[in-house]
Amino acid sequence: MEFGSVMRAMFLGLLCFAVTGAASPVCDVNIDPSGVVVRFGDPVTVNCSTTREDVLGAGWESSVSPVNEPNSTTAFLNVSSLAVLDAKPKCSMNFNNETKLPECIFLFAPEFMKIGNGSNLKCLVLGVASAQYLAVQFYKGDDQIAGSDNVTHNGTQFPVNATITFPINHGVNYTCTAELDFGSETPIQDTSPPYATSTIGPGEEKLNMSSLSYTISPTAADSLPCEVNIDPSRVVVRFGDPVTVNCSTTREDVMGAGWESSVSSVNEPNSKITVWNVSSLIVWDAEPKCFINYMNEPRQCEEKLDLVIYKYPESVSLIAPEFMKIGEESNITCQVLDVAPIRYLTVKLYKGDEQLGNRSFTHNSTRFPVNESIPFPVTPTRADNGAEYTCVAELQLGPGEPIKNSSLPFRMLPIDFEEQPILTVSENVEVNQSSTVRCELKNAFPPEEVQVELLINNESHTNISTDMDNVYVEESFTLDSFEPAVITCHVSLRSLSKSTSRNVRGYVLPEPTLHTEAVLVNHTGIVTCTVDGSFPATTTQRLLLNGSIVNETHNSTPAQYEFKAEKELNGKMITCETELNLAATSVKKNQSTTFNVLYPPTIKTHFPVSKDLKEGETLSSHFDCEAEGNPPPKTVWLKDSKEFDSSKILTRTDGGVYQLKTMNKFGSALATVTVTVGYEPSVINPAVESVSVLNGDSLVFNCTADGIPAPTYTWKHPEADNVKITTKDGVSTVTITGASSSNHGVYECHAWNLHGNSTRKVTVEVTGNNTLLLTLVAVAVAVLLVPIVCFAYKKKSTTGSYTFLPTNPSSANGSVANNGQTAEDIPLTTGRQRQSNNRSYTCCIVKHSPNSYTHSYVHTVCIYVSCITISKHKMEFGSLIVLGVLVLCPEGAASPVCEVNIDPSRVVVRFGDPVIVNCSTTREDVMGAGWESSINPVNEPNSKITVWNVSSLTSWDAEPKCFINCMNEPRQCVQKLDLVIYKYPQSVSLIAPEFMKIGVESTITCQVLDVAPARYLSVKLYKGDEQLGNRSFTHNSTRFPVNESVPFPVTPTRADNGAGYTCVAELQLGPGGPKPNPTKRSPPLKIPVFYKPSLLSADEENVEVREGGSIVLKCSADGNPAPTYEWKYPKADNVQEITKDGVSTVNITRASSSNDRVYECHAKNRYGVATKNITLTVKGRGAFVCWVVVIGVGVLVFVGLAVGFICYGKRAT
Fold this sequence. Notes:
Layout: H1 3-19, E1 30-32, E2 44-49, E3 55-61, E4 67-70, E5 74-79, E6 90-95, E7 104-108, E8 119-128, E9 134-140, E10 143-146, E11 152-153, E12 160-168, E13 173-180, E14 214-215, E15 229-231, E16 234-238, E17 243-248, E18 254-260, E19 266-269, E20 273-278, E21 289-294, E22 300-304, E23 306-310, E24 315-319, E25 330-339, E26 345-351, E27 354-360, E28 370-378, E29 388-395, E30 403-406, E31 410-411, E32 422-424, E33 428-430, E34 434-441, E35 450-456, E36 459-461, E37 464-467, E38 470-478, E39 485-493, E40 496-507, E41 513-515, E42 519-520, E43 524-530, E44 539-545, E45 548-554, E46 559-564, E47 573-582, E48 585-594, E49 597-603, E50 610-614, E51 627-630, E52 634-639, E53 642-644, E54 656-664, E55 667-685, E56 690-694, E57 699-708, E58 712-716, E59 723-728, E60 731-736, E61 745-753, E62 756-767, H2 771-794, H3 816-819, E63 839-848, E64 857-867, E65 880-881, E66 886-889, E67 901-903, E68 906-910, E69 915-920, E70 926-932, E71 938-941, E72 945-950, E73 961-966, E74 972-976, E75 978-982, E76 987-991, E77 996-997, ...
Parallel strand pairs: 16-23, 33-40, 42-49, 50-55, 56-62, 68-75, 77-85, 86-92
Antiparallel strand pairs: 1-2, 2-5, 3-4, 3-6, 7-8, 8-12, 9-10, 9-13, 11-12, 13-14, 15-17, 17-20, 18-19, 18-21, 21-22, 24-25, 25-28, 26-27, 26-29, 29-30, 29-31, 32-34, 34-38, 35-36, 35-39, 37-38, 39-40, 41-43, 43-46, 44-45, 44-47, 47-48, 49-51, 52-53, 52-54, 54-55, 55-57, 57-60, 58-61, 59-60, ...
């Protein structure tokens, strides 16, 4: 068909579509049931009805059992056996009041008309009802040239298509008009009958519907195209079924049409339509062709029908071997019989719903039915036991679901019967002794189907047991003679079986006899081994000492071993063994015992010379005595030669010397230990709870406690510089010099040792005194002192200059206060020194306080004198001149400075390490020095130096203080040692979440265990070499080891994924501490950081590719967990997706315009999605050619201009 005809047909169709749609009454057709599914050959019944009253009739249109029910609102479609596949039933209702204007009217004429030849013009009226009232008028210009007598249609009441044909001439406008004429009985009142007409020209519009005017123009005859239209173009028909195919043409110069075929050929002269109709297609090579014969060239056109004749498989079955062994490949064959055509056949093997194999035959062009056997290799496993295998044959004849036929299911029952049966029994068994035999098949499958039979001298045993995949029969048997027995193991699985046999022989071997006895140490003993009654009588006897042979005899001769009894031999194993040699093997029996060497006891436990215990404990809880002797010795404790119960609770009076005695009938052994029973202190003094002292007086009181070991004393009292505490010989003394109100308060004495502590309190009250009276008394004593001193020196026989040194009152020299002597009786010097110059002297008299608790001197009167040398041999009384004045020395006047020097001044020591510290003073009036401490206290009288020496410092609260006791004020100076005891952390570790999320704060905790002291501890968190945090504990004064958990907040970034975190605990111990500072690091910890994907390139890209070329589109993103990729684009055969090493690509080959679009890449993990859009533009090759042409033309123009310019230049010259 030429282009003009095509465009005209398209225009007519559009016009027809535009003018249709006149409103019609509602069609009320009810089908019950509305949908029917029926098996081929079964009966079917369907009801069709309407509720409208103006019904003319009802019926069913169908290729089987059509129905027509006039004047009825109901019609039944009833088919007893539905044996056609294309029935396509339709229910129709005819109504009295329905009219339907034509949907459209067409005029058809030949595209080409020969001059002088007549032609026909056809008017086609579509979709009109009711057709019996249809009138069609045909106009040539305005003149009617034909009426409705020529109308043919295909129905009466229903909307139909009508056709009228008129002869025509060329060069004239023709119009076709259709109208419905109901006469005088029309149901439409007061209106003319409905009709349709065409629009002829401007201003002539009518309400009718007409065909388009069609003007025919003659043209010269040319060669026309071949036009053969086959409907349907492709036919799929089952062998033996009917087939109908139409073939037509629209050309007008048709001479005839027909079908060429090996069955039902057709030849229809002068017809543009031909039908190939076969009631039963029973040939495979029909190959029908439609031909059209024309008057003009081409004279004949033909086209072959695409015909597919098929046949269901006669049968589909599975063929499998009788036994399929597990792990071995076997073939399961699908057999498909009598199927056609094979090129559309696909055979599949299924295990349950799982497809195992697929075989097609697309290259086989055979049209006739064939038989096919398709093997599928299968290697069964134990899991396949009981699985059902099915073969499915499919004919995929066209679009839609294929035609399928399946085999009966085959149930897989694989076996594993590879192992040989195992017969476990000794070839030699002892007569009249029960023996065990086992017949076993290992790794059998299925084990429940295995049959096992054990035959012992033809006696059958079938008591089957299973152990996983092992199947066995185990029985006990006894031989009553030396005759051999035949034992057979027989196993079977289905029709397969295996056997093994063995002969078993009997022997006799009695138990050996071992003779031995107890022997006293250092004496000789004998061991004998014998056996009697063996068969055969070829035994060997052996004696073995701890597994080593010491004697061996043959042929039933007894074996003996003579030995010297030693203490070390006691308890060692001696074995009597007998061996019977039998053919290829031997059997043994043995009897064992141990040597019994008798010896006196010894004590193996080391006992200390002395032992400190605590009141309330027992000896047995501290002494575990291990004594050795044979027979085993008895052990007792002795004190004062009397037996002592070691489980008795000890009291403080139970200390003393103890003996542990162990004994048996061959001797005894002793161990001696001195036991000290310790107990906690109890304070004896002070006995009073309060004491008073006058303001300015001195006060001394003691604290005494009883305890073992000797208690150590500490005091709690009001702080004051005039309070001195000394401890000597188990007595702790508090001395208050010049009492004042600051000394008022409670004084607590704490006596403690390793077993406990005790406390006693004394309240000191300071009251007023008469200072004036004391002063007068002091002055009077000073006045009397001068003549006494002079008188004493006057009596000296030696002349010279003497030095009077002050001395403290004592029991040796007395004092005014405590023995009533006069000042004359008090020696004032302890040495003398000859001088040639004048000297000054100070003489002091002291007054003793009346308080009985006071041992100090509080008021001192001093006289300063000068003695002048008169001669070398005699000092005269008159030579003594009083140069000074009477001076009252107030309390504390001119006191020497407290000087305590500790070296080193600061000590840093690790817990458990040794420590040595010196303490000294440069003062000359030292009475003694020492150290107060909870460990290794020191007291050194008359020494200016004292050393605190601890071999292993294992106490956290030592707090050592050095004290210096002096004769003058201040009488005691105390200085505390700056002591730091440290301990490395036992462990440093990190506690962190399993993972962290980017931008979200998490906590990483440093855990430091068992470290001291906390105030010097610094905990740091590192990420690689970068410090993230630091925490100190300077305000923590705890001396003991502590555990610290230090949280550090961390907000990770992408760069932190996989970073190593480390916790460092550092002890910054300061001066005297180890350098560098002690540190301990935790093991590094890597914490994954999760974050959503982010693209590694721009999120928008525009790329180009030339048509037919190839291109790769890439998409990559960084994320944790690693992202997965999803592309979105219309799928095409030339597009392939590949994801590898974190990069996803789309590979496009042979690009075409169908690939010209946007490709979306989605990189996603559980934390988010990143999207990339790539716009691909496919450029056509035409643009490239155009550019080549343009460039080529440009080059030619340029060359032409250049040549012309050159020529012009030459002419000009």
